[in-house]
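Dear support,

I submitted the protein below through the web form. The confirmation email said the job was done, but the results page showed an empty box. After a refresh the structure appeared. I'm attaching both so you can tell me whether what I see now is the final result or a partial one.
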Amino acid sequence: MYRYRSYEGTVVPAGINLTLFIGPTVAVPAPPLLMDALESVEVTHSDEERSGFQITFQIGRSGSFVLREFPLLDSPLTKSFNRVILMVTLNATPRVLFDGFITHRELSPGEKPGTSKLSVTGEDISVVLEREEKSAEHPAQSEYIIANKIILGYAQYGLIPMVIPPLAVDFPVPIERVPVQQGTDLDYLVDLARRHAYVFYVLPGPAPFTNRAYWGPPVRVGVPQRALSINLGGETNVTSINFRHNALTPTMVSGHVQDRTTNRSLPVQTFGSLRVPLALRPTWLAERPNVRRRQFRQTGLNVLQANARAQAETDASVDAVFAEGELDVLRYGDLLEPRGLVGVRGAGFSYDGLWYVKRVTHTVRKEEYKQSFTLAREGEGSTTPVVRP
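What the results page shows now:
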């Protein structure tokens, strides 16, 4: 367990505790040998990719009994496919930071005694959904039912389904077609999600050994997190931040589809994003004459399904403004969570306001806890006069 001291003269928590659970079958609190050697922890969460971690240990060997091998490298606790759970206690509230498995180990021998390093890297619980490719049929089941069924098949890993039904629900009639899965469960869940501009990821917690498998739209509603403050004197909590605007990302879709029910060729067209707006001047609207347009070429759908998939492609493309930066957790006074909303203030009208948190990387070392982040939204300009401080 690490304990971090607060900065003097700032209003921050009295300390932060990091707890490591590790083990081959049931993860248990790491022994002192492991915690004393722990140098750093890095955890990355993203709304489009699997979460991952890397733990680095300082290792050495001395005495005639350990000349053959580094004790930590030979320890059964650091072997591949051991389960790892990282938990952070901030403001007296424990939070599960990561839950997954070791998939990779790397040894970096040092020239001087005590400078060798062992790094163990792993992925979250969703890695078990990618172990086996399958050929499976899901007759008379919509994507919503299929997603629930697949996730419930991994209940032994503590996976709890959080599945949001799409607006256009497709109930396949067996005499017309049967949904067929060719690939791993993870690939199939991601493919089903993309049809509706949905995302699939695994959230650790809320309790150790439990995980929430989220299949649904990006979370762009709800109570935003504490604001990221820039150039506000003592209120500043962001170490660095930069903004970029890519006007080429928004895409409109148009074309025709031969409705499989009526056998008629019907138009398919998108006119804008249906997502909850976070910016006052969305790029897809402000730059409408220059927005990219793509032809719709999918087949075997009825007109409702075709328009839903075209809209999903447009919705997934509209984020055009991004912010990347770093903050100090002790100054921020909380953990910035990905896959939700956060406010930005002090950057000026164009970039203040609400943002969607796409990616967060935790970097933990002795006496230091920093987070790097990536934010996104569809354009410039704040939709709200104030944000949560």
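Response: this is the final, complete result; the empty box was a page-load delay. Residues 1-14 have pLDDT under 50 and may be disordered.
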